[in-house]
Amino acid sequence: MEKDRINTEGRTLTHAIGNRPAEEKTVFRLMEPIVSAAARLHQAGGYYGNIGPGSIVIHDRVWLCHTLPFHQPGSEKWRKGTDGSETAPPVVSLLYRNRPEDDNETFCIPVEEYLGGEMPGPWSDVYSICAVIYSMLTGRRPADVKGRMRGERLEPPSRLGVSIGANRERALMKGLEIIQKDRWQNGQELYQALFEEENDTVTVTAPMEEKGKAKKNRNILMRQKRNGRMLDTVVWCSEIWSVSFLDTLAGKPQRYWDVSEQKDGSVLAWVQERNDGYDFYIAGEGGVAGNPDSSSLFKDCYRMRSVKFGGCFDTSRITDMCGMFDGCASLEELDVSSFDTSAVTNMISMFYGCVSLTELDLSGFDTAAVTDMTSMFYGCRRLVRLDAGGFSMKQVKRTSGMFTGCPALKGTAVKGIDLDRIKKGH
Fold first, then answer.
1. Burial class for 126, CB neighbours closer than 10 Å (0-12, 13-18, 19+)
2. What is the pLDDT of residues 21-39, one digit of tens each?
């Protein structure tokens, strides 16, 4: 009997963990072989169905393989997998249980098993596995699908006090989407999202202010990594509608990221969801100091319509502004009047591809230390007025392509720069 096998050969997750929340590290260590096994089975054309904590067995800290029935999408026939065969995963222990008549006794059934219009398949296993992970992390079942369809909210684990990597939480919540097409479609996709993507950490509490440490040495923003994500958060640059700098952490939400250079909690970032994107906030007590290397800070934020510095972004430390607004194609206005550029040496491609800008006031820029302005305004095809009255070109050695693709800019429309001389390469 299968029940006897559980008692003599191992413990189910239900018996081993019960309703107690488990640490993230433990949860994903235990679930990694399950997700891996599901991925292999899905690749072979089958799926399990009816996965829950009572059908996952631990034995001597090793996940074993039992002979399991599994389903093929589009078929009502069950086939038997055997140890070592292509149809049964080699490192997993899943115990098949017939579904009870009473749905209340089952574990988090996906919507396609309630409704007749959608076909169960690997995506159903994805939902069930993610429901198991959610319950292990939080100590509670996810909200029932029927309740969610009536408007009941499924809270992310972080909002329930769980410390979890932000990428992993996002992957988990996608696996728990109500509609099948919105989930990961199989175990391979889920495995990659949970175990192969880089998982950053969401800070749960802000650190205490260190006594005696001058604020002028704090609040330094981290360097923007060139991985497509804004400040190494889970938010893609292409998802951002706006960026705002704030001089207080008082209004921070429950979920945020530490984006300070020293990882000391002095600079935090968070988002507010809007349509199919986000408003992105960066804050520090007394403001935020730019990283000396602020290259590519807003690169490829092509949906971004506004950046509100509000006097809260100290640029006096910055030496590299290369590509700072590169690819910000939707920016129609940009106020950089608060920028202190006295330490900047590199302005290569700073406004490259800002195709929506029509006017730009850089009269307050101190460029005495700048040596390279290559392609600085490349592709700003709608730019009709540029005030560069404060520019010093004495140290500038390279200006190649500085105004390439700026057909609307004429000599009289540029203040402070000999446009014709630059275009001729002098």
1. buried
2. 888 888 888 888 888 888 8
Q: Give the closest residue to 79 by CA, choosing from 70, 90, 88, 89.
A: 70
Q: Tell me the three state secondary structure of residue 194.
A: helix
Q: How do beta strands 257-258 and 69-71 pair?
A: unpaired
Residues 222-268 pLDDT 10s: 999 988 899 988 889 999 999 999 999 998 898 899 999 988 899 99
Contacts of 242 (CB under 8 A, 6+ apart): 279, 280, 304, 305, 306, 307, 308
Residue showing tokens 């290259």: 295
Return the SS3 of 237: helix
The two structure tokens encoding residue 35: 């997700």
Contacts of 330 (CB under 8 A, 6+ apart): 302, 303, 304, 305, 356
Chain position carrying tokens 């309630």:
114
